[in-house]
Amino acid sequence: MNPETLQNYAKLLVRKGINVQPGQNVVILAELDQPEFVTQCVEECYAAGAAKVVVDWTHLPITRSHSEHRTLEVMSRLEKWEMEKWQWQLETLPAKLYLDSEDPDGLSGIDQDKYTKAQQAIRTAIKPIRDRMENRYAWCIAAVPGKAWAKKMFPHFPAEHATEELWNAILYASRAWGDPIANWDAHNEELISRCSYLNGLGLESLHYTASNGTDFTVGLLEDGRFCGGMEKTLSGVPFNPNIPSEEIFTSPRSGDAEGILYASKPLSWQGEVIDRFWVRFAQGRVVDVGAEKNESLLRQMVSMDAGAAKLGEVALIPHDSPISNSGLLFYNTLFDENASCHVALGKGFSNCLRGYENLTQEQATARGINDSLIHVDFMIGTSDLNILGRTRDGRDVPIFTQGNWAE
Fold it and tell me: 67: part of which helix (H) or strand (E)?
């Protein structure tokens, strides 16, 4: 891969993604796949004025080993130093850059019941801290190629060739060619314009239909708002939480969903792929699911806690969009969700409420934002998906027609 292109990508993630501020701390979370690129990101952070950059390395084979050899009690326990590390993040609010490269099948075959119970305990322990950090720090999820991930996507190529192909796909989807900063300035303006249009409609609900059987209605919050692209921390620092991102999203009214959704793409969750699945809602909650692959894992997901069976997000992405038009299935939610309309089970976003800056997490929940230990997106967009909006003054407004924006 061209070194200048990778340097520009690193600069994009640091300057537009997490938007490092002078004197700020930064945490980078990465697998072991691309240490040279991680080093470039570290150097870019310091060039932007970072005071301290911490890299937390992870490796899925080690996670697998932990899962196989540790007891559930040990897996479920956060040590004192681990909690102190989270407390440090709460006190210093570092910018956080997540560089995803995991093998989509990297935890296939482990005891998922044991792993899920441990994750429930860990997430419950850190949730109060994460809730207090919400909207107060800049973060960005992006990607670099991992060999196993690349071979999953391009199985007929040798590993090195497959990795190069995945680099090309990531950079294309991330608008990282040419002048990435200018690309994202223009892209953010387009997303803001689309949000403004939707927020002006006064939508009360969305009704989804498609030939695959999807027939679903979700209620929207009266004081809710659509967001997309660039966000801002409560202190006013702009950042882009997802690179790539094509979505316009909102958090719906918790507990207001009826009907059935059919997934249009596989979902990689906890190191395994759930495929060819559907989810049925009644009175706002998941009441049944089915899957041809890993149905038991899907059932564990929606049972993580009381909020896991409710929706935290609905997102709109046209079928005619860069990632969709690439024809690639990434087996990675960051990319596949930005090729397709999707919804998310679990935690909603308090910043999808007007006046969120004056609300606590508890107040946002009381006003209809779902709360949960999880936030898991799954894709529902198809080339023939229609979405009809109902406004609060009783009008029906086409939002999507045959997979794309109606207006």
Answer: helix 60-69
Give the torsion sign (CA, 50, 131, 86, 37): negative
- Report which secondary-structure segment, H or E, holds 196: helix 180-199
Question: Over the stretch 43-102, which tens digit does the pLDDT of each residue have?
Answer: 999 999 999 999 999 999 999 999 999 999 999 999 999 999 999 999 999 999 999 999
Q: Determine if residue 19 is left, alpha or beta; phi over 0 gives left, psi from -120 to 50 gives alpha, anything else beta.
A: left
Report the C-alpha gap between 368 and 312 in whole angstroms: 10
For residue 268, give the H/E element and its range.
strand 267-269
Amino acid 310: pLDDT: 97
| Confidence at 357, pLDDT banded by 50, 70, 90 | confident
CA 196 to chain centre: 22
Contact call for residues 173 and 244 (beta carbons, < 8 A): yes
CA distance 181 to 15: 8
Residue 264 pLDDT exceeds 90: yes
Question: Residue 277 is encoded by which pair of tokens?
Answer: 């699945």
Which among 351, 349, 345 is positioned nearest to 374, based on CA atoms?
A: 345
> What pTM did the predictor assign?
0.88
Q: Are 207 and 217 in contact (CB under 8 A)?
A: yes
pLDDT value at position 348? 96
Contact between 386 and 205 (Cβ < 8 Å): no
Name the burial class of residue 362, with classes exposed (0-12), middle (13-18) and buried (19+) by CB atoms within 10 angstroms of its CB: exposed
Average of pLDDT values for 275-283? 97
